[in-house]
Design brief:
26% of the residues are buried. With 273 residues, the chain is an alpha/beta fold. The protein contains 9 helices and 8 strands. Helix 5 runs antiparallel to helix 6 and helix 7 packs across helix 8. It folds into 2 domains: 110 residues, Rossmann fold (3-Layer(aba) Sandwich); 158 residues, Rossmann fold (3-Layer(aba) Sandwich). The mean pLDDT is 91.
């Protein structure tokens, strides 16, 4: 089923995109055609968008704080018989009631360049500089260190965590090349082991070699060799008491969420102690 999805924001529209993506993931056989309209801050701009909506009717989702712009959009959508949803309204209203104050009608206020923004940039820079075992001398500065065999989602998970503000390093576990001794003596970072099924790992590695036009009959993709690699890594994780996450059936986002939960639990345990 084809669906026209109109996303209107008076800021970057990042929030709307995430909401739409999360909602659409719950439905099968939908072909969404996104019409993305960021920085909607004038009636003239809105009029141009409304003309496009009339030509491609569908679901309208918006985050607009200007009351006049909102009223115009909602009334025109009603006239066209189209749903217009403001997904942040229930949360804002609930917060307003609990806090006893009105929300500030400032477009894009969540994107203000505050300390958290610069901390996230710092985390991304650190993570990029400490990928695949590089810069192990600075691992103590990390918040998280991910360990796992080759192609166990270490790098994409690290980048996702960095975007959430966590300085993340990662190290490949290779039987023939033990990791630096520093890995076993870290105090500040949470070290997490990533593992997966041998079948999935072999499939991912084969696809990787094919994309590079390299031979696919090596120990790198040999089932027995891969199983030995995984067993070696699991023994290392167990011997050091590191938490382990099986990424076989997890998305990057799910893996990262589990790691963040581990960080939260660790912080609470430290504060309670």
């Amino acid at each position: 089923m084809k669906l026209h999805l109109h996303l209107l924001s008076d800021s970057t529209g990042e929030t709307l995109e995430n909401i739409a993506k999360a909602a659409l993931a719950q439905f099968d056989d939908v072909e969404p055609q996104r019409h993305f309209w960021p920085m909607v801050r004038s009636e003239a701009h809105l009029e141009r968008i409304l003309a496009e909506i009339a030509q491609n009717p569908g679901l309208v989702i918006f985050t607009l704080v200007n009351s006049e712009t909102r009223r115009t959009l909602e009334s025109r959508c009603r006239a066209m018989g189209l749903p217009a949803i403001a997904p942040l309204d229930p949360v804002s209203h609930a917060l307003s009631n609990l806090l006893g104050q009105e929300a500030k009608a400032r477009p894009g206020r969540q994107h203000t360049l505050d300390a958290a923004y610069f901390a996230r940039v710092d985390a991304i820079q650190f993570t990029i500089a400490h990928d695949d075992g590089v810069g192990w001398e600075n691992w103590e500065e990390a918040d998280i260190v991910l360990a796992g065999v080759s192609r166990s989602s270490k790098t994409p998970t690290s980048i996702y965590l960095a975007n959430r503000g966590f300085k993340t390093a990662n190290i490949p576990i290779v039987v023939e090349s033990p990791p630096p001794a520093a890995l076993y003596n870290l105090k500040h970072p949470l070290v997490v082991g990533l593992t997966t099924s041998a079948d999935r790992l072999v499939a991912i590695r084969r696809n990787r070699l094919l994309s590079l036009n390299e031979a696919t009959e090596t120990n790198y993709v040999d089932q027995d060799s891969v199983q030995r690699e995984l067993a070696y890594a699991r023994r290392m994780f167990a011997d050091n008491g590191w938490p382990v996450i099986d990424v076989t059936r997890r998305s990057i986002e799910e893996t990262a969420a589990a790691i963040i939960q581990l960080c939260t639990e660790r912080t609470l345990a430290k504060s309670a102690g």
